[in-house]
Amino acid sequence: MKSISLLGVLLAVFGIFALVYQGFSYTHREKLFDAGPIHATRDDTQRVPLPPIIGGLALLGGAALIVIGARQKA
């Protein structure tokens, strides 16, 4: 597979992911207290939003790269 087509597929998959989930979340563990055998931690969940325009542009750009890669001669 041509590298430009592969990049197009990856960009299109990212665009679909961004449109469907509209962001992602991750968990950060924070140490609150640590004294000898006693430990206290807190898990914070953070959400990173992705605007739908980013997903749409990525999907269109990926489709364009796939078409360009298909038209190039080997």
Could you walk me through the main structural features you see in this protein, from its secondary elements to its overall organization?
The protein is of the alpha+beta class. It has one domain. Helices cover 53% and strands 34% of the residues. The protein is built from two helices and two strands; from the N terminus they run αββα. It has helices at 3-21, 52-71; strands at 23-35, 38-49. Strands 1-2 form a two-stranded antiparallel sheet. Strand 1 and strand 2 form a beta hairpin. It is elongated, with a radius of gyration of 20 Å.
Give the strand order, joined by hyphens, for the main sheet.
1-2
Mean pLDDT: 90
In this structure, how is the largest beta sheet organized?
2 strands, antiparallel
% residues in beta strands: 25-35%
Per DSSP, the total helix count is: 2
Number of domains: 1
Question: What are the segments in which pLDDT stays under 50 over at least 5 consecutive residues?
Answer: none
- The percentage helix is 40-55%
Would you list the SSEs in sequence order as H and E? HEEH
**Rg, Cα atoms, Å:** 20 Å
Overall, the morphology is elongated
Distance between the termini: 10 Å
Q: Assembly state here? A: single chain
Structural class call reads alpha+beta
Please tally the β strands and state the result.
Answer: 2
